[in-house]
């Protein structure tokens, strides 16, 4: 019986049937008493009601300001929450409980018992009860209301943070005919100069196409019909063109005056690759030898590099002029140091020599923004693009393209790598560097792509293929603002070898 009596006592306490004597006055009671007091004061003897009301009223406008007031919302300037009697009773009980001393003995057991009783009697824990509860939806702003508040923070993407997508056309911007082009994988038959002139070798002739004007010029033609052009390479300044021939000679031409300056004979077989480093012209031959020519002096042949056992079909100097990369039909990639003045002291040993490729290595490209990075591509038996670190000698990454690789080129405007392919895809692929993820594929040639080159502004690539066509792809256009800033920084420089060739 004592247990039931205790339950009845707890139930009566939680129901709050009896008023709490020592509880503070409720808010509605305080508000009512204050309004009654102000009303009595306003009607006190000696003061009129009108004067009292006008004096207690808040001025409608701030003195000294004539701004329009913000229109008030329907039903008042704030949203009054809904308060039922049960919530007010619970709030009064919680406020009373705060004033009671806390019993530190057996606090845990008491709180658990109170929680259990509250859940069984009220359906919720009284400790978690809310004093005020907001319900319903706010009213809509009246018509004509203007919000003058400024947005300080927004989670939406701003225009600056929105990533701009680049459109790459799958069709070439222009197609040029290249009749009598030799469909030979090991030759390097065209090059684009810094003066925006494209040189292409068609059998035993060299033609120049001015990309800015569209003019075509026949530069030279070999005397014997059975001879043919094997390689072309412009100087850095774009004034002179080196031409390798099938009879083992290297000719040097002044393009502006259309005059042959000299013919250098040192190789015993055709010269299939050429590369410039200031006044030093390097040439690779079918014999496997690489010759350095100093075009300033009469005795031009200054050094020979012995590292390949078969034809040297790829030859590229690094942008900083420190290393020469060579690729051959013997599947080797070699890196050679720059020849110093007084070449007798040079031992002619390669810095690196890699044999990971399983096919002929014609495609070579140095990274313009990382001078120690070299990209190489293998032929039909290999089909891999390999990225090398010359300083450490390690292969950074390797990718199987499933197609013969005939040429590689870095595109600095977007830091991408472009590869030209023969069998079986006969296409051009743009890769993101260094991840080597595919960005775009350029298809259109009907035969294998033999070589590719980059325009002076690095916005367009030109490809030549066995279908006797040259196709221009505008894939790397830069922002016009950045382009103007870059053009201002570029200054015209005179040729290093202008006065020294003889």
Automatic annotation (TrEMBL):
One of its GO terms (molecular function) is ubiquitin ligase activator activity. The keyword Repeat applies. InterPro entries: Cdc20/Fizzy, WD40/YVTN_repeat-like_dom_sf, WD40_CDC20-Fz, WD40_repeat_CS, WD40_repeat_dom_sf, WD40_rpt. The lineage of its organism: Eukaryota, Metazoa, Chordata, Craniata, Vertebrata. Residues 28-81 are annotated as: Disordered. Residues 52-63 have a biased composition (Low complexity). Residues 31-51 have a biased composition (Polar residues). It holds the Pfam family WD40_CDC20-Fz. SUPFAM superfamilies: WD40 repeat-like. GO terms for biological process: anaphase-promoting complex-dependent catabolic process; positive regulation of anaphase-promoting complex-dependent catabolic process. This is Cell division cycle 20 homolog. Residues 176-473 form the CDC20/Fizzy WD40 domain. CDD domains: WD40 (cd00200). WD repeats lie at residues 222-263, 305-336, 379-398, 442-474. Keywords: Repeat, WD repeat. Belongs to the WD repeat CDC20/Fizzy family. One of its GO terms (cellular component) is anaphase-promoting complex.
């Amino acid at each position: 019986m004592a247990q039931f009596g205790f339950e009845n006592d707890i139930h009566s306490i939680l129901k709050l049937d009896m008023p709490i004597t020592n509880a503070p006055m409720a808010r509605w009671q305080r508000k009512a008493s204050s309004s009654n007091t102000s009303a009595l004061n306003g009607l006190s003897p000696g003061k009129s009601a009108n004067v009292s009301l006008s004096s207690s009223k808040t001025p409608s406008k701030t003195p000294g300001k004539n701004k329009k007031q913000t229109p008030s919302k329907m039903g008042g300037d704030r949203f009054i929450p809904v308060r039922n009697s049960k919530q007010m009773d619970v709030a009064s009980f919680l406020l009373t409980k705060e004033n009671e001393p806390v019993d530190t003995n057996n606090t845990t057991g008491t709180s658990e018992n109170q929680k259990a009783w509250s859940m069984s009697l009220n359906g919720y824990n009284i400790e978690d009860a809310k004093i005020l509860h907001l319900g319903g939806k706010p009213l809509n702003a009246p018509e004509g209301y203007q919000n003058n508040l400024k947005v300080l923070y927004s989670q939406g993407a701003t225009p600056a943070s929105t990533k701009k997508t680049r459109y790459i056309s799958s069709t070439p911007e222009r197609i040029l005919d290249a009749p009598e082009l030799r469909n030979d994988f090991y030759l390097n038959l065209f090059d684009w100069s810094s003066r925006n002139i494209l040189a292409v070798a068609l059998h035993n002739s060299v033609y120049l196409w001015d990309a800015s004007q569209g003019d075509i010029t026949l530069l030279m033609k070999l005397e014997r019909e059975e001879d043919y052009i094997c390689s072309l390479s412009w100087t850095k300044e774009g004034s002179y063109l080196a031409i390798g021939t099938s009879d083992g000679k290297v000719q040097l031409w002044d393009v502006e005056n259309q005059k042959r300056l000299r013919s250098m004979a040192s190789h015993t077989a055709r010269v299939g690759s050429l590369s410039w480093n200031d006044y030093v012209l390097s040439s690779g031959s079918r014999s496997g030898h690489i010759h350095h020519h100093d075009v300033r002096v009469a005795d031009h042949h200054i050094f020979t590099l012995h590292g390949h056992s078969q034809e040297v079909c790829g030859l590229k100097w690094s942008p900083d002029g420190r290393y020469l990369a060579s690729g051959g039909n013997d599947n080797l990639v070699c890196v050679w140091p720059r020849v110093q003045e007084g070449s007798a002291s040079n031992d002619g040993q390669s810095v690196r020599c890699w044999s990971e490729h399983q096919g002929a290595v014609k495609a070579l490209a140095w990274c313009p923004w990382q001078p120690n990075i070299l990209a190489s591509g293998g032929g039909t038996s290999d089909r891999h693009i390999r990225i090398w670190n010359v300083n450490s000698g390690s292969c950074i990454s390797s990718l199987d393209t499933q197609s013969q690789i005939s040429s590689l080129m870095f595109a600095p405007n977007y830091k991408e790598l472009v590869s030209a392919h023969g069998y079986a895809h006969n296409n051009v692929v743009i890769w993101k560097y260094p991840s080597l993820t595919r960005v775009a594929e350029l298809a259109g040639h009907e035969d294998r792509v033999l070589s590719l080159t980059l325009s002076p502004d690095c916005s367009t690539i030109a490809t030549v293929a066995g279908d006797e066509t040259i196709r221009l792809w505008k894939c790397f256009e830069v922002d016009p603002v950045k382009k103007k800033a870059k053009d201002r920084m570029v200054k015209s420089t005179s040729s290093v070898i202008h006065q020294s060739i003889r």
